[in-house]
Amino acid sequence: MPTPSGPFTGRTIDGLARDLREGRTTSTALVQLALDAIAELDPLLNAFVTVDAAGARAAARRADDELAGGADRGPLHGVPVGVKDLIMVAGLPASMGSRHFAGVAVADAACVARLRQAGAVVIGKTNTHEFAYGPTGDRSAAGPSRNPWEPARMSGGSSGGSAVAVAAGMVPLALGTDTGGSVRIPAALCGVAGFKPAYGAIPVDGVFPLAQTFDTVGLLAGHERDCLIAYRSLVPAGALKDDGRPGRVAWLDPTGVFACDPQVARTVRRAVEAGTGPLEELAFPAHEADELRETFTAIQSSETAAVHADRLAEAPELFDPEVLERVRGAAEMPGWRYVRAMRARPRLAESVGALFGRHDVLALPTVPLTAPFLGQRATELDGGPVAVRAALLALTSMWNVVGFPALSVPAGTVRGLPVGLQLVCRPGWEHLLFETAALGRARHGTPPAG
Amino acid sequence: MPTPSGPFTGRTIDGLARDLREGRTTSTALVQLALDAIAELDPLLNAFVTVDAAGARAAARRADDELAGGADRGPLHGVPVGVKDLIMVAGLPASMGSRHFAGVAVADAACVARLRQAGAVVIGKTNTHEFAYGPTGDRSAAGPSRNPWEPARMSGGSSGGSAVAVAAGMVPLALGTDTGGSVRIPAALCGVAGFKPAYGAIPVDGVFPLAQTFDTVGLLAGHERDCLIAYRSLVPAGALKDDGRPGRVAWLDPTGVFACDPQVARTVRRAVEAGTGPLEELAFPAHEADELRETFTAIQSSETAAVHADRLAEAPELFDPEVLERVRGAAEMPGWRYVRAMRARPRLAESVGALFGRHDVLALPTVPLTAPFLGQRATELDGGPVAVRAALLALTSMWNVVGFPALSVPAGTVRGLPVGLQLVCRPGWEHLLFETAALGRARHGTPPAG
Fold first, then answer.
1. What's the CA gap between B257 and B119, in Å, rounded?
2. Residue A17: how many other CB atoms lie within 10 Å
3. Looking at CB atoms within 10 Å, which of A230, B155, B179, B237 has the fewest?
4. Least CB–CB distance from B306: residue in A305, A333, A336
5. Is residue B427 very low, low, confident or very high in pLDDT (cuts 50, 70, 90)?
6. Helices H, strands E: what count in chain A?
7. What superfamily in CATH does domain A1-286+347-450 come from?
8. Percentage, residues of chain B above pLDDT 90
9. ipTM value for the complex
10. Do B334 and A337 lie within an 8 Å CB cutoff?
11. How much is the mean pLDDT over chain A?
């Protein structure tokens, strides 16, 4: 399958920033590149649900004027970005991928306001699995987002539109949200970088909730370094430390958690070890993986049903049928399971934290398989049948339970489809995720910036 | 009906303390009085499930020796106390009113340890509604505790044994727990004082949980001043302030919350106004009362079912049938309702707090009716049918939702049965509850101390 390619493919934010400051391009020109690419590619890929050409052009002009006048907002100044349609952008519709919502948002979400302060130009809103409640990305009132590597396949989700927009080179950067893997899963399936910060690191004000004790704003870009640049603009100065010490990395055996395509595991491990050298292997206690999964489900179900109970009672017909069925199921999760799950979290965070006793970073596949077909709900994995949704979430949701930061970076392809390497650390050690990812990239010899 | 009477009826802790120090009695003698009263009265009243005669006599001897040697632990030194059988006492059985538990507790609960440090002598364990899950006090593996005013009537619960032990004069003081009214309800129905401190004021370590975000250790005594003396020994020095300012008291119309026997309302109001003079009347917004009730139920059900889910699955036959039915119902409370209820609490605390804008203390009946008969589950109240359990909890559980302190004091009788005046304040103003109660008592002319 051909590697997807658009005007921003292979270009980095650093490179764009240099070009903007050295007169080789303007924000207005970058916005036009994005708009043209969307016009050309999006009828097939369905990454965007709203394109704000007029607003983006006006913002680009202001960015150009500021730069020309010597007012420089930093690396994102003039850079076009996509925003997941679960995140409010003032004056633009916010559908949450659903038929329940019509009107436009009155104010920017906090993360959008911060990106704009850093000079970023919002191009439009990207497609999302309805209410972000699904890792497949193929149930949206706007239709499924499609995988640029093979459009009959799913993008993954729920931030599918953001991953597709970046993977197809329509924009260099997009905002997503990650409650159980919704940034990392589509990043892995579409072959881009996706960063889920620590819980609470980026404010979720103005983001439609999925499960409020897991919800995290995240970033998608072609290169992990661009996620880092955007992350820096979203958190207070000094939030990222860097003690200069290289991270101690271990390989976490994914088969201790869930069935894993052996080729995926091998490819991902080879990708990380190309940078780090051979890694010590850690195993996850199986009962703990089960408990993390059950804890995730009890909490997500209860919190999601709390968000939607009124809609479920008053207008069930407006939900996508599959999402409706899931919300109905979630509404039946007993309260006592939620109580127990919430009490288990500190203990689980402690025992997961203990995995980091002698290591700073754990490496594992982001997703144990490559992108299934749109609408596919069952598949085979390592010789046994698995549910697609469970498989997609299997290696990501546990990090939401404990609130740890996790980065997914492209790690090659298996049978022509991209796979992701997931790097996880404790809160406060985020810089080591990016350093570790860069190691592999350096040895691999990636395309030059810009 | 005759007023119940035992050796500690009409005696106060201050009076006992004076007698002990002035040689008119000894702790050993007080313990013997308690043991004799239990032997005489408890076959009928069933207040105690365990009596530790040997342990109490030994502790009394130590207390007497200390006092004789000049080591004075303060007003509780040598005073016999009962402890609800939900609270651990080292070496004594802890049945929680249930057939699920056999063995003895290995350590004292934190509150028991503090009472002992203050010199109190544990006489035994008092009967409780099974697992404290019921305000009627008539479903215990040990059989129902009985109201000393009329033994065919319920004591109220769940701290029924503690209320009965104090009301019948078997002990001057007892520990209870209050999750939705479990100290105040039996105090009111049995004609004694019951104090539920602010949530978190007394540690619950070593107390078997009912609903952990409501559970509170409380105190029962013949006089509210004795609750205050015991409370002082259970909280850090300085926890109780006293700015000398008299409390501004308002009457809270109970009929805005639930149906109320007009004679009960009239009697209680007259009792408080005898001390304070005519009170301004406040009304509770009806929708808020409903929301407080729903919030209480969603949270108590979920948290209680979380405590009992394993017992429910493994040994349902060991539960009392009515309690089993209630735990089964609680296990069906959906998680999303718990999530919403927990989110509603800060808002509810704020709007309930607003009732205290121009007043420090709200006065209302503790319970809107007098003690029903044992096993009675339906009655008439103000001309309409009500469920007994709902009626008993109607005026108390809302204060657990918001975590405010509340004191119930005897306020006379209606048709020969005692009724309680409930005084509520914001955390930090506890001293005003006791001052307000004392006002009424002073004007009424209560029996002299000791």
1. 41
2. 20
3. B237
4. A336
5. very high
6. 14, 13
7. Amidase signature (AS) domain (3.90.1300.10)
8. 92
9. 0.91
10. no
11. 95
